[in-house]
Design a protein that fits this description.
With about 350 residues, the chain is α/β, with parallel strands linked by helices. It folds into 2 domains: about 190 residues, Isopropylmalate Dehydrogenase; about 150 residues, 3-Layer(aba) Sandwich (Isopropylmalate Dehydrogenase). Helices cover about 35% and strands about 20% of the residues. Strand 8, helix 8 and strand 9 form a beta-alpha-beta unit. It starts with 5 loop residues before the first strand and ends in a 7-residue tail after the last helix. The relative contact order is 0.18.
Amino acid sequence: MNALPVIAYTCGEPAGIGPDLAIALSAMPLPCRLRVLGNLDALAARASQLGRPVQFIELGQADATPAHTPGRLAVQSFPLAAPVTAGMPDARNAAHVLSLLDAALQGCVDGDYASMVTGPVHKGVINDAGIPFSGHTEYLAEKSGTKKVVMMLTGGGLRVALATTHLPLKDVPAAITRDSLEQVLAILHRDLAEKFGIARPCIAVCGLNPHAGESGHLGREEIEVIEPALDSLRAQGMNLVGPLPADTLFAQLRKQPANAVLGKQPADAVLAMYHDQGLPVLKYASFGAGVNVTLGLPFIRTSVDHGTALELAGSGKIETGSLLAAIQLAIELAGRIPETR
């Protein structure tokens, strides 16, 4: 049993589909020791609502996590401040949602968990509770004392990382500096090598502007910021292609040979300049099985690539492809780190 990695799954917003996803996992064979962090009563109620028989095993913080077995679900329970109704979030439970993340993070840092997989949270509900929250990526970075992290999604044969994450579009150009780009690319390059086992990663970099600035006629960020950053990192031995027009780049990645960038070598990842430049392409290509990975953290964190889907909570109509892919990737990446307890 101890050869199996311990994976912590946080249920996220209790009124959303995070608990439904946990219930779905109970029926699936998984090569890991899965610990679900949520509220046991809420999970039992959701299982009853869905008509799914589940044997729940309640775990304390110090208890060993058993090997996952279909029909059973090992749960570490955290208190709620308000009753849970599927599809109807309550801001009073925002602290509960964050307590799951805090516990998973601490378990990863302490070596109890090989990785954490996060279910969807509702940013608006957390902010409505008076807690500033822009997303998992930023929260885990702050709580772990990590100065810089990188958001990357995988799926559909692509890996797409972001130079900026959850920013209004009007704020993106000012946030893209030579220093920030060099930091993002350094983290991306390092984690592709260390966590994904790619010896010499090739990273394709998008331009910020249409046509990558059209030689300065449609913007000068490529000339004044992006190209100098890439040249500096190339001098340090990084294999970087770009900056390239995003539409051309992604179109080329769909051609043969697989992932060839402008007829050259395969790209192991793409760096997009902002959220909606790269992620719509990946989500379309992954057909609901994309995975969000936070690079730069001192532990492994993967996540579903979708939201809380409040309208589907308790309906039995959810898709599990993204969660299964997130768990599979967490197990794969955990195989490259020392065994956990």
